[in-house]
TrEMBL record:
Gene Ontology molecular-function annotations: metal ion binding
Protein name per Swiss-Prot or TrEMBL: HMA domain-containing protein
InterPro entries (UniProt xref): HIPP4/7/8/17/18/19 (IPR044577), HMA_dom (IPR006121), HMA_dom_sf (IPR036163)
Lineage: Eukaryota, Viridiplantae, Streptophyta, Embryophyta, Tracheophyta
Gene3D superfamilies: 3.30.70.100
Species of the source: Salvia splendens
Keyword entries, A-Z: Lipoprotein, Metal-binding, Methylation, Prenylation
One Gene Ontology term from the biological process aspect of the record: plant-type hypersensitive response
Signal peptide: none
Gene Ontology cellular component terms for the protein in this record: membrane
Length: 209
């Protein structure tokens, strides 16, 4: 009982006893790595369990006394991955509504990668940058496709400083705009293909006398 009171005084907002983290997990090895990093955290004495949802790239940590901030920071530092604290949130609903939607972009980079080992090295390097969601290297084309909310120019600088490789932006696509365009096209299609109640092709159409 005293431990719970202490955590609440320290600002622990984990009232439901469940912490949900967003982490990019592309294989079983990644999942095991995340699990091991969380199990090795000394603050996990009060944690009841860890569930990994690799399909949706989410990690659920159960434990009323676990500090969400410390857990997310621990995983970010140890794994080198971008970790998003999905729940619980410190901000109230009004602040969340005012917060602008982050721009998700897809960037194609020209990076010299001559083998699979190089590709994996570049991939792990880029995944350490905050905002990066997915990284897909193409050894044959010497290209790397990166998706996320990161700044493309800062991404190039990050690869140069952290990976020691030269990178050049070949293509940049704003996925937010594409989603909006797709939504608009769907609306247009619905209007175009709506039943033509007053057309000549409709035998039941109304006619003026």
């Amino acid at each position: 009982m005293s431990c719970v009171a202490t955590n609440n005084q320290n600002g622990n907002n984990n009232q439901e006893g469940v912490i949900v983290l967003g982490v990019y997990i592309h294989c079983e090895g990644c999942a095991n790595e995340v699990l091991n990093h969380l199990r090795g955290f000394q603050g996990f004495a009060d944690v009841e369990g860890v569930e990994i949802d690799a399909k949706n790239h989410k990690v659920r940590v159960k434990g009323a006394n676990a500090d969400p901030i410390k857990v997310s920071e621990r995983l970010r530092i140890k794994s080198g991955k971008h970790v998003e604290l999905i729940s619980p949130q410190k901000q109230d609903k009004k602040e969340e509504e005012k917060k602008p939607e982050p721009t998700v972009s897809e960037v194609v980079l020209k990076v010299y990668i001559h083998c699979e080992a190089c590709a994996n090295e570049v991939k792990h390097c880029i995944l350490k940058m905050e905002g990066v969601q997915t990284v897909n290297p193409d050894v044959a084309k010497n290209e790397v496709t990166v998706k996320g909310t990161m700044d493309p120019k800062k991404l190039v600088e990050f690869i140069s400083k952290r990976g020691g490789r030269h990178a050049e932006i070949l293509k940049e696509t704003d996925l937010n705009k594409n989603d909006k365009n797709d939504a608009n096209l769907n609306d247009i299609h619905q209007l175009v293909f709506a039943p033509q109640l007053f057309s000549d092709e409709n035998p039941n159409a109304c006619s003026l006398m």
